[in-house]
Design goal:
This protein is α/β, with parallel strands linked by helices. It contains 14 helices and 16 strands.
Length: about 375
């Protein structure tokens, strides 16, 4: 049955309201939107009823492109596990990408308990080669041999850490057998070592006991924000036409007007930046890598009362970590690698006296690092 004119107008008005709420906002660079699955599903159906498949694809491509890093802490204890904290390991997620940073003993159980699973967990980034950061790789590979299947496994790190992990996997776990998937060891140094469409991953040197210690930066690429109000003024229709402008193509409208990307894109703005530092005994060489980070994950093994011991074993106090965050203009400080000798609230108190936005991570805590509104 054909739709009446009144029903068509009502449907279009409904669509405009959805667009105003969902298309324009995600495309504004400073905006961050988190929605429940149900809300997103309902909006998909409503949008599809108004604009069809092409408009739907454009809308949710834009929604997905609202860059977001998510951190899942799997182990937050220093040196040895405690009753409530496992050994060092965390996952950084971005869309379908998963990065396992360090893999202390028992990490595979933490992965299962967290519900994260092993799918897409094909990249391991090592901060250094100390046993409390790598021993879990033996059990993880053993599980892949018998139970789980992934397409490949790439292990990134400094030469010293990779050599030790190679000995563990080939000398202890495999012992003459072949790994169940392509297994690659990727030696990296300072600089970008992975580049995706919308973000980069880079490494930088960190001072700790032993050579080739590294920290990691996850950074969304800078881009120009789409200006929906300006597009409305110019008569740019909703749908793939707006996507073409975002992608840098000029658009010729039916009325003869030509719209260029410069007409509807704002000034270039920097992307979200997440920095992850493993064990370290110095902070003066970390200020620039951490500069203006939206979030910094870093160790906090000691309190300031044990500063001499921290120096001796090349670790940080909570105060030192917070002072670094202040010097580097870090927005959010997340402390991990917590010694069993301290209460969480004491670690938090010492750091919060220096930096206004501090949290002490617990096992299975999740943090979302997103654009500011």
């Amino acid at each position: 049955m054909k739709e009446t004119l009144g029903a068509t107008k009502e449907r279009m008005q409904k669509g405009k309201k959805i667009i105003a709420q969902m298309v324009c906002l995600p495309l504004r660079y400073n905006c961050s939107i988190i929605q429940t699955t149900n809300a997103k599903s309902q909006s998909r159906e409503a949008f599809h009823s108004v604009f069809g498949t092409c408009g739907l694809a454009f809308l949710f491509h834009s929604y997905k492109d609202t860059a977001l890093f998510e951190i899942l802490f799997l182990g937050t204890s220093a040196s040895a596990p405690s009753a409530k904290r496992g050994l060092s390991a965390l996952i950084v997620k971005h869309d379908e990408y998963r990065f396992l940073i360090d893999c202390g003993e028992g990490t595979q159980r933490q992965i299962l308990q967290s519900g994260a699973g092993f799918r897409h967990l094909t990249r391991v980034l090592l901060t250094h080669g100390h046993l409390d950061h790598i021993l879990g790789l033996g059990g993880l590979l053993s599980t892949f041999l018998r139970w789980e299947a992934i397409e490949e496994l790439e292990i990134f790190g400094g030469r010293s850490a990779l050599d030790r992990v190679h000995d563990l996997l080939y000398g202890v776990v495999l012992r003459g057998n072949q790994p169940p998937m392509p297994l690659q060891f990727r030696e990296i140094k300072s600089g970008i070592f992975m580049e995706a469409n919308d973000f980069n991953v880079s490494a930088f040197p960190v001072t700790h006991r032993g050579p080739d210690c590294l920290g990691y930066i996850f950074e969304e690429k800078a881009r120009r924000p789409f200006l929906p109000a300006r597009a409305d003024e110019l008569g740019v229709p909703f749908g793939p036409e707006r996507r073409e402008l975002v992608e840098g193509r000029t658009l010729d409208l039916p009325n003869g007007k030509r719209v260029t990307p410069d007409d509807v894109l704002g000034p270039l703005q920097k992307g979200v930046k997440l920095v992850v530092v493993g064990d370290t005994g110095k902070t003066d060489d970390l200020v620039e890598p951490c500069r203006d980070a939206d979030a910094l994950v870093i160790e906090s093994t000691y309190l300031n009362e044990a500063a001499e011991m921290a120096y001796e074993f090349s670790h940080l106090t909570a105060q030192q970590a917070a002072e670094l965050a202040v010097k580097a203009n870090v927005k959010q400080l997340i402390l991990t690698h917590i010694s069993r000798r301290y209460r969480e609230k004491d670690v938090l108190k010492e750091a919060a006296a220096v930096h206004p936005n501090v949290q002490v991570a617990r096992d299975f805590d999740t943090f979302q690092i997103k654009r500011e509104e």
